[in-house]
Amino acid sequence: MNAERDAEELIAEAVAAPVDGWGFGWLAGRATEERPPWGYARLVAERMAHVGAALDVDTGGGEVLAEVPSAPKLLAATEGWPPNVEVARRTLRRVGATVVAIAPDGALPFRDASFDLVVSRHPVRTDWAETARVLRPGGTYLSQQIGPGTMRELSEAILGPLPPPTRRHPDQAVAAAEAAGLRVVDLRRATLRATFADIGAVVWFLRKVIWTVPGFTVDRYRAPLRDLHQRIAEQGPFVAHAQRFLIEATR
Questions:
Q1: Measured between alpha carbons, how far is 9 from 19 in angstroms, rounded to an integer?
Q2: Model pLDDT, residue 68
Q3: Which of 136, 160, 168, 228 supports an S-S bond with 113, CB 3.0-4.6 Å?
Q4: Which GO MF term does the entry hold, naming one (predicted)?
Q5: Residues 117-133: what's their mean pLDDT?
């Protein structure tokens, strides 16, 4: 079987696979990514156990929130991508969370000072003013976010050379938090090694993590995908690096 046919079979398999929710189980045995050293899920669980009301913004499919062993009495989550809303509602029944569908970039549909804790893993965009508004005095915002130039090697393998990143810098987040009246009490950064063992893993990842190659479709990028397939076949797994940062702020 020639390399081109192998590529097409792997790509077709990845295109047929669902990408709902925010789990990455489909990549098991095909791709890896190091985890940040701070243990975001553990930090969320610790804080959830000591508050009365909490909110998870951009919950995805609810995967992180569902693992909280001791949920607060009032627990809410928001999600702006319609395919994830029903996934999150099913996933979060166990912890009694109410999942609210919101419009991208829309205001948080909650009263002022509603929550002791607001958390968010990989938010699309942090609305710092809205976050500060819904936090109670003394409340905490805890978020693991995508850092600048994340997966840059993969983006450039498909798109070609890119200019230096100008968005998602941790210092920008700190400035925005402080401008909204919050006090940043913790900021940590991590660079994490990721590997892709076949082009199917690459295609599935690009379909799911849509900011890596904005507007990605297989038809549009078939030529660089075939080139990357050949590179993996000759050199082994493709290596990229994810950028993450943890920010914690209080009102």
A1: 18
A2: 97
A3: 136
A4: methyltransferase activity
A5: 96
